[in-house]
Amino acid sequence: MNRVIRELVKSLSVTPGEAADQVDKFVHDLRRKLRKGEQAFVPGIGVLTPGSNSQIIEERNAKPTASRTRRRSR
Known about the structure:
The structure is a single chain. By secondary structure, the protein is of the alpha+beta class. It has a single domain (3-60), classed as HU Protein, Chain A. The protein has two helices and three strands, in the order H-H-E-E-E.
């Protein structure tokens, strides 16, 4: 089992399948944002910003601002 999945299982008390689904959703949302030209915050890494020529620019340990993140209501 992937280390990220194991950590999610322990910290969130979810099944390995649920943890894998959460990781898949996170990666999908991250790729979608970057493809649309939006910035994406990755906890522990910082803000990823799409650059020219399909490059990703990383701002290490940057914190999200209101303009960088949007919370969706469930």
